[in-house]
Amino acid sequence: HKMGIIHRDIKPANIMVMENFRVKVMDFGIAHFKSSSMTQTGIAMGTPNYISPEQLKGKEVTPSSDIFSLGVVLYELLTHTKPFTAENISALVYKITNENPPPPSALDPKVPPLFDLVLRKSLAKDPAERYHSAKEMAGALEDFTVALGKKPAIV
Fold first, then answer.
1. Which of 24, 46, 103, 139 could form a disulfide with 116 if both were Cys (CB 3.0 to 4.6 A apart)?
2. 131: domain range?
3. Does residue 103 lie in a domain region?
4. Which sequence positions are flagged as catalytic?
């Protein structure tokens, strides 16, 4: 994001953990460059379960759009279930744009309730209510990890 790139397709298949435990985001095939006019408002791009509400509505994508997708990935990692599921794409779009998933701690008591706060913020329907950068979200996760008495992992 600090280089002006919005990925637009953050999902588990595009996140790789390297041998040194550094996380790398892969596949920038549909990435949007802030300075580019190659993409249009009004066209949703991405993987349906991980796409942000504003992308589904054809609105402008921002780094907050990737934060939403990252929140979906983290939710799935913690609960082993996707936060938004439906039998068809129309129902999925409705859920992503209008409904909030249950807090992860309600699905798995091993998930500390502190993570509910991070996920609630990252999955906010309004992009302005989300973390504004991956760095800000990482800081919140690190703060919660420290509060839980765990040493933060290098990311």
1. 103
2. 5-147
3. yes
4. 9
